[in-house]
Design a protein that fits this description.
Elements: H1 2-39, H2 66-80, H3 89-97, H4 103-110, H5 117-125, H6 132-143, H7 149-158, H8 164-177, H9 183-187, H10 195-209
Length: 211
Amino acid sequence: MKRFEWNRGLSARLGTAALLVFLALGTGLWGCGSEREADVPPTTGAVEPPPPPPPPAPPTADEGSSGTAAQKAAAARDAGSAPISEDDEDLREALNELRSSDPEVRADAVYDIEPEGVGLRYLIDTLSDPDPEVRISVISQLEDADEEPEAIAGLVTALGDEDPEVVIEAIDAIEFVGDSSQIRDLQRYADHPNEEVREAVADAIEYLEDE
């Protein structure tokens, strides 16, 4: 009987000790879990917006093509020239064609611009066109400008063109509509690197000296 009571007391003490160990382990695990949960930042469910697109690439050397250059020349011409009358639809149409990327279209448009008044100013501005055939068309129109001083000034400007064919056309036009006052302008190109230009200059000077 005493042995039974002793065994029962021992079992009770062992059960109490096991319960205390279980509680201690549970408290520790719960604390570790809480610390791990505290380390995880809360999520709000909001989605961050995508990064902005990169800026456009700078223009490349290919953008220096005849079409793009013609558009830039047209923009500069429109910005610096006189306004157009609302009734002058032909001039508006011709100026619109000067924006074409096709040099033949631009050259044809030049012949639709009368070399007087506002049209004369636009013709002179078109001497900056990137295509030499267009510039030659302009010179042809300036030659028909009834010896307008502004037209002759445009022809003198064309003497400095980088294309020898354009320069020769300008010399011939000055010889036709100019006078002795342009001899000095022609003499500046007497030593031009192109032989045909030098010959044209000499002929024009001789002709104007006899006028």
